[in-house]
Amino acid sequence: SLPENSDDALIRQVVDADAGVSETLSDDPLLGAEHHFTLFKKKYGKSYANQEEHNFRFKVFQKNLKRARRHQRMDPSAIHGVTQFSDLTRSEFKRTVLGLRGSRRLRLPTDANTAPILPTEG
Amino acid sequence: LPEDFDWRDHGAVTEVKNQGSCDHAGVQCTGALEGANYLATGNLVSLSEQQLVDCDHECDPEEAGACDSGCNGGLMNSAFEYTLKAGGLMKEKDYPYTGTDRGTCKFDKSKIAASVSNFSVVSLDEDQIAANLVKNGPLAVAINAVFMQTYVGGVSCPYICSKRLDHGVLLVGYGSAGYAPVRMKEKPYWIIKNSWGESWGESGFYKICRGRNICGVDSMVSTVAAVQTTSQ
């Protein structure tokens, strides 16, 4: 398994510079970040308690734009960009959105019934 | 096996749910049972996740302290185990979703809408996963969701993705040819129902390529069978 922040630690494969650039992000994801952030807040109805929180979320949003671009390079057949989770840090995303419990790498329970092998041809 | 298959085309998949910030691993459990119940009874009924959030505290016998715990998450097989022991799940409309785990368990046995007959784990083999999907209905699966935070659409097929499982979803179908321009070939993919609302991904669904256990999607797959019940 990879470390927790594995998408930051992965070896990046070199791909063609034009390949798979997201339709939703420009070459420099931080260009127009404020505009993206404004659209993001409007689309997902986001509001923040105070200016400090707003500033923090904007920084997180900028990081997630970079993350989306990185994901786009690593996953060119999909489209990556702004989602409703773009103002969440990776750890917040894991804590609040992902629900599989278990600190260790999950394995199939040994006492579970195993589905019978089904025919797959013909 | 058919080349393409999608349980949405056969009426076995309910509307996409939005768990908010309360993921109990119940969504894939309810989704799998909704599909199995549809196959057993011919009725598609949206089942209560809130029942699982409030009432399921089943523990994993193989890991001390790993118990299903409201909005703090759980394990899909534990959720199946709870559903089996409790007798079944109520309808969503009888036990609606609140997105919090501060309430008490309000399970009413007289209003059970679907019951688990048994559940099994499916082998890692992708043909077996496809065969079980076609034969038994949508399957509960676990996945590493790192690429899902930024996913907007298309077929996700990352060059590298951790297989550390951290999110439960529902496998509802597969396609034989998703477009993969960089790799210059058509790629087969799984169709996955998520629980983050319809504004996420492709109307709430995620496509991930088949063939090499990408993001661990083949690692933990469960199938469930339902018994016919008389709901009130």
Low-confidence stretches of chain B: none
* Elements of chain A, N to C (H/E): HHHEH
Q: On the 0-100 scale, what is the average pLDDT of chain A?
A: 78
Beta-strand percentage range of chain A: under 5%
Mean pLDDT score of chain B, rounded?
90
Strand content of chain B: 25-35%
Q: How can the largest sheet of chain A be summarized?
A: none
Low-pLDDT parts of chain A are 15-23
Label the structural class of chain A: mainly alpha
Structural class of chain B: alpha+beta
The largest contact between protein chains, plus residue counts on each side, is: A-B, 60 and 75 residues
Give the helix proportion of chain B (percent range). Answer: 10-25%
Give the assembly state of these chains: heterodimer
User: What is the CA-atom radius of gyration of chain A, in angstroms?
Assistant: 19 Å
Helix content of chain A: 25-40%
N-end to C-end Cα span of chain B: 37 Å
Give the overall silhouette of chain B: globular
Structural description of this entry:
The complex is a heterodimer of chains A (122) and B (232). Chain A has 122 residues and is an all-alpha fold. In chain A, 39% of the residues lie in helices and 2% in strands. Chain A has 4 helices and 1 strand; from the N terminus they run H-H-H-E-H. Chain A has helices at residues 6-9, 33-44, 51-74, 90-96; one strand at 78-80. Helix content of chain B is 19%, strand content 26%. The longest helix of chain B is centred in the first third of the chain and has 16 residues, at 26-41. At the A-B interface, helix 3, strand 1 and helix 4 of A face strand 3, helix 4, strand 5 and strand 6 of B.
Question: Could you name the key traits of this structure?
Answer:
heterodimer, A: 122 residues, mainly alpha, 4 helices, elongated, B: 232 residues, alpha+beta, nine-stranded mixed beta sheet, 19% helix, globular
